[in-house]
Specification:
The protein is an alpha+beta fold. Helix content is 21%, strand content 23%. A hairpin with a 4-residue loop joins strand 1 and strand 2.
């Protein structure tokens, strides 16, 4: 496998106002840093608005009678 050194850190900070996801890749070929700050849902601030939209899209995709591709 080419994945020899993978580290995962999960930190919880109840003082934050947003869910923050940081992805850092440091390889010989490139260094990539991605940071996503999800805005909490107005109806349910314990989850993000993006999560709700993702679940909605997935359910529509699963139950749609019309499908393209696999």
């Amino acid at each position: 496998s080419s994945f020899k050194n993978i580290q995962v850190f999960i930190k919880a900070d109840p003082g934050l106002k947003r869910n923050i996801h940081k992805i850092e890749i440091d390889a010989r070929q490139a260094r990539i840093n991605i940071e996503v700050e999800n805005i909490p849902s107005q109806k349910n601030p314990k989850t993000s608005a993006l999560t709700i939209l993702s679940v909605q899209y997935l359910l529509e995709k699963i139950f749609s009678p019309f499908k393209i591709g696999s």
